[in-house]
Write a structure and sequence with these properties.
By secondary structure, the protein is of the alpha/beta class. The protein folds into 3 domains: 36 residues, no CATH class; 33 residues; 178 residues, Ribonuclease Inhibitor (Leucine-rich repeat, LRR (right-handed beta-alpha superhelix)), CATH 3.80.10. Helices cover 13% and strands 29% of the residues. Strands 7-8-9-12-11 form a 5-stranded mixed sheet, with no helix packed on it. The protein has a 3-stranded antiparallel sheet with strand order 1-2-3, with no helix packed on it. The protein has a 3-stranded antiparallel sheet with strand order 4-5-6, with no helix packed on it. It starts with a helix and ends in a 21-residue tail after the last strand.
Length: 319
């Protein structure tokens, strides 16, 4: 009898140990299941679904990994094209187009093909067939023409000048995001000393390859000298680019015909003698000179001999 009791105790102990082990294994599996939930990949089951791409209904889907079922109501399914015909090839810069046929709802429709984007070789030239787009390198220059006509189509008569731009930073692969400095200007062919010139420096310019650049600097000289005099009479200067400094010494000095001046809100510094001797500048109330609120520094003699009809803020000590 005693032997039977000892055997029974051993069996019970073994069962208890096994139960504990199985319980621990189950807890571990449960914990692991929480740590690694299924990243569901639901696939629509068309046979069980009442929704189509033509009318709303119930969408029944099953996860391809764990088999979990998902049901959504009032759903219109996406088209499932059974045939696709490209009607317009996409290029580096332009979207393409293709015609699709959905057998599920017996409907033909068109959809766009994303633009491919440029693919440049080591020489900076796009290698896609028929493109040839080129990235400009830092330090290279190009001339911008017809600035007024592009910025103000109603006033092409002011297109009496050209701008020379020098690349400071190159654009991205889509020809965007580059920066340039305006490093020179010229009068157009046919200009004389009596030709009225109104110079506009826009926020952005394009080179001959279609790359777009933001103008961040102006480093050329507009002062009245023998060379600039031959380009025409500078009557107005419209700076619309996000430039921070005009620091070339005597940049517009002695341009006695300069009447109109427009400066960007970004401007922080006007250099020494910048508008010295521009005796007509701001002389008429209809052409007031407005200085940017963010202006931090005006160089010595920046407005020497300038007689304003309406004096701009904090000008008096810089004449």
């Amino acid at each position: 009898m005693a032997k039977m009791k000892r055997k029974l105790k051993k069996i019970l102990s073994l069962v208890l140990v096994l139960s504990l082990c199985m319980s621990m294994m189950g807890m571990t599996a449960f914990a692991q299941g929480d740590e690694n939930p299924c990243e569901h990949d639901f696939v629509v089951n068309l046979e069980e679904s009442t929704a189509t791409c033509a009318q709303s209904g119930t969408e029944v889907s099953y996860c391809s990994k764990c088999g979990e079922k998902q049901v959504r109501a009032d759903v219109i399914l996406d088209h499932e094209p059974t045939s696709v015909t490209v009607t317009k090839q996409a290029t580096c810069t332009e979207k393409g187009e293709e015609t699709c046929y959905c057998e599920l709802c017996d409907v033909s429709y068109t959809r766009s093909i994303p633009a491919l984007g440029h693919q440049y070789g080591e020489d900076g030239v796009c290698i896609r067939e028929g493109c040839g787009h080129t990235l400009s390198s830092v330090g290279s220059s190009f001339v911008v023409d017809d600035v007024w006509e592009k910025s103000n189509p109603s006033q092409p008569k002011f297109d009496t000048f050209t701008l020379t731009c020098t690349v400071r930073t190159t654009p991205d692969e889509n020809g965007q995001g580059g920066t340039v400095a305006v490093t020179g200007w010229n009068g157009k062919e046919g200009n004389t000393t009596s030709t009225n010139v109104y110079i506009l420096i826009p926020e952005t310019v394009q080179d001959d390859n279609g790359n777009t650049y933001t103008v961040t600097e102006v480093t050329c000289n507009f002062q009245m000298n023998t060379s600039n005099q031959k380009k025409g009479k500078l009557m107005g200067f419209y700076l619309r680019a996000p430039v921070k400094e005009l620091t070339v010494n005597s940049m517009f000095a002695n341009q006695t015909n300069l009447q109109i001046l427009q400066l960007p809100d970004t401007l922080e510094v006007i250099g020494v003698g910048c508008f010295s001797g521009c005796t007509r500048l701001g002389a008429q109330e209809k052409y007031p000179v407005v200085l940017p609120e963010g202006l931090k520094e005006i160089g010595i003699g920046a407005f020497k001999k300038v007689n304003f009809a309406k004096q701009p803020r904090w000008i008096s000590r810089h004449r």
